[in-house]
């Protein structure tokens, strides 16, 4: 899987800090990947931020706090649309597409 470096992510340091704070608060056990144009280099000012939550203990098990995190992201001061997905609910073809290029924002907890 071509994991990319955080430096390749098209996101300001301030917005990255806000995002990491929300992830740590609402989904601390989740492994979090960013994918899409903000990773591959095709982003523009109006690009959304594509995020997928993964359960590192069981990739087939959904993340229970998805709704809470989604609401917190909507209420945050992040200026872009955030497209949040749960890995366990995505079709295998979509998962393979994400695995082609992603940045890991949070490693997750397998315990």
From TrEMBL:
Domain of life: Bacteria
CDD domains for the chain: NT_KNTase_like (cd05403)
InterPro entries for the chain: NT_sf, Polbeta
SUPFAM superfamilies to which the protein is assigned, alphabetical: Nucleotidyltransferase
Residues in Polymerase beta nucleotidyltransferase domain copies: 21-100
Protein name: Polymerase beta nucleotidyltransferase domain-containing protein
């Amino acid at each position: 899987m071509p994991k990319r470096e955080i430096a390749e992510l098209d996101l300001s340091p301030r917005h990255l800090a806000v995002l990491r704070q929300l992830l740590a608060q609402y989904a601390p056990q989740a492994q979090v990947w960013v994918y899409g144009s903000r990773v591959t280099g095709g982003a523009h000012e109006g690009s959304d931020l594509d995020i997928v939550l993964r359960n590192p203990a069981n990739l087939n098990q959904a993340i229970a706090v998805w709704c809470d995190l989604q609401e917190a992201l909507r209420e945050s001061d992040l200026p872009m649309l955030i497209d949040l997905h749960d890995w366990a609910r995505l079709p295998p073809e979509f998962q393979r597409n994400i695995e082609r290029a992603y940045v890991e924002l949070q490693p997750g907890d397998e315990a």
